[in-house]
Amino acid sequence: MEGHAPTRRPAVARRTGYSIAAVVDGALLYAINAHPGWRSAPFLTSDTLRVLPLVNLSLIAALIANVVFLGRDPHWMRATGDLATTLISLPALVQILRVFPFAFDDPTVDWALLVRTVVIVAIALTAIAAVVHLVNLLRHAAQRP
User: Fold this and answer.
1) Where are the alpha helices (DSSP H) in the chain?
2) What does the alpha-carbon distance between residue 126 and residue 131 come to, in Å, rounded to a whole number?
3) How far is CA 61 from CA 25, 73, 81, 82, 98, in A?
4) Coil, strand or helix: which one is 115?
5) Exposed, middle or buried: residue 24 (CB in 10 Å: 0-12, 13-18, 19+)?
6) Which residue from 10, 69, 99, 108 puts its CA 20 to 30 A from 21's CA?
7) What is the biggest distance separating any 2 CA atoms in the chain, rounded to whole angstroms?
8) pLDDT tens digits, residue range 120-143?
9) Distances in Å between the alpha carbon of 111 and those of 7, 8, 39, 120?
10) pLDDT tens-place string over residues 11-59
């Protein structure tokens, strides 16, 4: 049916989702940065320090966006926040692929190939998401009087 906007989830469900996402973002920030943090993961190398600032920025942006959405989440604001957080996470993923701060000891599984593939797919999907969020933002901007 042309002209019908998709229905939104009820406010309580949306706010529950924003709350859960904010808690997860905060927990990840703590787990990565508190002592011993990322150093306790045996597959992460010291090169993790080269990707950490962008990963932290991405998590902080997502945390802020979800906290803002808790208070107010009109379509245009959500589209703006989603675009911003997606555009911030894209360079973090690219940096992870470029630096590749992983070392795997298991010779029976090519974990490096698997992780590289997952990161490449994540980059592609994030780029697609950025375009979708931009289209949503432009669509909402065009609808505003």
Assistant:
1) 11-33, 48-71, 75-99, 111-143
2) 9
3) 9, 16, 9, 10, 22
4) helix
5) middle
6) 99
7) 61
8) 999 999 999 999 999 999 998 888
9) 41, 40, 19, 14
10) 899 999 999 999 999 999 999 999 999 999 999 999 999 999 999 999 9
